[in-house]
Amino acid sequence: MYLIRPEVRNFQPYLPGKPIAEVQRELGLKRVVKLASNENALGASPKAVQSLRKNSQNVFRYPEGAGTILRRALARKLGVRESEVILGAGSDEIIEILGKTFFNREDEIVVSQHAFIRYKMAADLLGAKTIEAPMKNQTHDLQAMFRNVNRRTKALFVANPNNPTGTYVNRQEVELFFSNFKPGQLSPFLIFDEAYYEYSKELAPDYPDLLNYFRKGYPVVVLRTFSKIYGLAGLRVGYGVAPQWVVEAMDRVRPPFNVSSLAQSAAIACLNDRAHIQKSLAIVREGLDYLTQEMRRLGLPTIPSVGNFLMVSVSPLLGKNLFQKLLRKGVIVRAMDEYGFPNHIRVTVGLPQENRFFVHCLKEVL
Ligand SMILES: Cc1ncc(COP(=O)(O)O)c(C=O)c1O
User: What is the value of pTM for the model shown?
Assistant: First the structure.
């Protein structure tokens, strides 16, 4: 025990959504629908799957460590330089690399109350302190976050939209927030986690373009992923856009082969798969409407979401009890205790028949 770093002694691991096979095994169920990890219900982009088949015989080779081709493709698509793109085994790994590269024990990070929990975990692991600013209307309050900036602040993390609330900060709020900073001036990192970007930019007409601020020279880091709309959560590949000196520093810290060869080639193959993106978007748009309406009928308030998931208040019931009851029926959702919402569940938008099954089971357990 004494050999364990003090930061790790009380470290609470991340609670992932329950896997389907585990639920089938434990409960002897045939039909299990997983609506717990904000995966793409339609599955992976067919272009990615084709690439996996084609490239599988090359797995005896180490991946290209620098991920040059994927970085180049991303840079071209995003209108940034290749040297401004970093790859990770999911955007999750990039959060951790940011921590390892930049957080000291005396540093602070600022997050919002109810924010995606991995930012705080990265800080905890490095012994840095996390300051939580209150939310406003269940959304990140950027000005409140800014009020918590001081000399020790290393980074502000903004999940846009936030997981689990599904809420986002809009163009106007972001503009006001950036008026607190000047390009090129010394300031903390302003990290915008856009894991659900491809959904949000279509679902929210006033969804902000953070790369614009990056291009203007603010110390912005934008994180995105292939885990969500591209449907590659199991492959583990995400990326970040950051100033070149930031990418260079992080590249020194990241494991040399952090993104597998299959993940790299699949990501390249599906990067411009517009058909899959459009289909996935349509499923989510329709699913959000359907679920919101059905919850309203059941008297369960929801939080409007621009991601592929929805937070549902089940008050006065406990989310974890409902989670257990739904599990026994073969529907995996998420209880929200770790996010400070004991009376909510979060449900990922599934295929129409999966959504219907969820609603059917929910009615039964209620
Ligand atoms: C806001 C947010 N950021 C980052 C991630 C991590 O995604 P990945 O590591 O699969 O790219 C998630 C996953 O659920 C998320 O919701």
Answer: 0.97
